[in-house]
Fold:
Amino acid sequence: MSLPRFISVITVKVDRHRIIVTADGSHTLQSLQFSETYHSTFGAINESMHVFVRAGLHMALERFPGGMNILEVGFGTGLNALLTLLDPEIRGCRISYTAVEAFPLDEALWQGLNYPGLLKDENAAKYYESLHRCGWDEDHEAAPGFLIRKVKLRVQDFHAAENHFNLVYHDAFSPAVQPEMWTAELFTHLSAMICPGGILVSYSSKGAVRRAMQEAGFRMEKIPGPTGKREMLRGIKC
Structure:
């Protein structure tokens, strides 16, 4: 994959990854195995804020104002969890955050990412460290009212109670390199764990993905995407 000319590459390679400086100054990782980045090269923080926090979290808070259970498909760099934890809209809410990740990052990689220094919150570095250092497969209170449980597992093998989650961040690699993460079967598996009226958000806008989500029982919306992407998908569990 060729990168846009405004992107800088930091030649730090660990465990088949390298660090990329995206257009908003924030880092992402490029997987050398898949030749794909974890976040948009048009801005990692910008993309996560737009797709998952504004289009997902904020809408879910309107529907479930007392608190919610969130599932992230792919913990990755921890950026989505960090932005959720720091978002002022969740103050006073109870958040239970489950992140399913089959291949956790090496510490040398997440330590090299610059998110805490770019976010205007004095606790960003402390919380970022806490999110990454907490143990796997156990509950951890990363901040008051914010409980996280990281599960080291393929999402296909992960199970939770029926109707448990209010919001799902679907942040897998693209359908081109991980087609198994975008099928009707996978979305049906997720749908069983989402409560009626719950939300699933994804950066993808592909017609095949939209149809797969519809088949799994979601009412689909195409909404404006982040910088560099015209549209994204949001599904509401029927």
